[in-house]
Prior knowledge:
The chain has helices at 22-33, 45-57, 72-86, 110-138, 158-178, 196-203, 209-214, 224-234, 253-260; strands spanning 13-17, 37-42, 62-66, 91-94, 141-146, 183-190, 246-249. The protein is of the alpha/beta class.
Amino acid sequence: xxxSSQPCNIKPVVVVTGGASGIGEATVRRFVAGGWRxxxxxxxxxxxxxxxxxxxxxxxxxxxxxxxxxxxxxxxxFADEIWSSHGPVASLVxxxxxxxxxxxxxxxxxxxxxxxxxxxxxxxxxxxxxFGERMAEIGSGSIINLCSLTSFRPSPxxxxxxxxxxxxxxxxxxxxxxxxxxxxxxxxxxxxTMTPAMRERINRGERNPDMVISKSAIPxxxxxxxxxxxxxxxxxxxxxxxxxxxxxIDCGWLVYSAYTAFAxxxx
Length: 267
């Protein structure tokens, strides 16, 4: 049953992996503000429980559940439990993932590559498949994957970049396969987003904020709430004809960095 076709007294359910912080947390907050019931899934129990408790205290319908997206058995069990205890899930947001600092291909530890691919790609596949199959059975649902600017442009993050480029193809494949059963699959590609993890890296000197702002058409960082708004739209009836797309949310970084790199600038 889709969110738009449910009785008005029944809240649609969204599951957000990586929902304890950053973009995932902002997405949870946007959905509950829109009247949805949210399941916060994360491996960080302390932060996840704190976010859920805060929202419940404010009157929101939120629960927290521990989930390691790289554990296939745990993902299957999680999907079964959520579907049976909360009813049909209208939307899934695959926000769980890990970052990578700049490193050359020749210097990167292969163990780091394996871990990032395992969580960012395989984890999204496991969760998307578990919920997508159930959505297809009832004939409705929406899945959002998390891509990145590195889905379109190279960066000195070999594992992270490969993982996010892979998510473009996975999104398109899932959209083609699940569309005939009424399930839409899209992705967002956030630019440099001022999450707690980004702020920590800036404070440690691992990211240069001036370089980000100077290469953005809108001279600021993306906020997690910006991404949450776009995800909410893509899961809404207003986006009912949209599937298989990857939407950049980057303050114009992709266009501006290319435009200003042209050999001659207009007067």
